[in-house]
Amino acid sequence: MKILNITNGTNTVDLMQAAEISGDKLSWDDLLHEGPVPADLSLDELSVIRADYIIAQGWASAEQVKDKFETRNKLIKRHLEYDKIILWFEHDLYDQLQLIQILDWFNQQSTVQAELMLVCVDKHLGNHTPEEFALLVSQIQKVMPQQIETATQAWQAFTSPDAKSLENFVESDLSQLPFLKSALLRLLKERPTVGGLPQTERLILQSLQTEPLAPGKLFVKYQKLEQAEFMGDSTFWSRLNQMAFCEYPLVEYQVKEKVGYPFNPEQKVKITDYGQQAIVGEVDWFRDNKMEKYVGGVPLKKS
Question: Whole-structure pTM over 0.85, yes or no?
Answer without folding.
Answer: yes
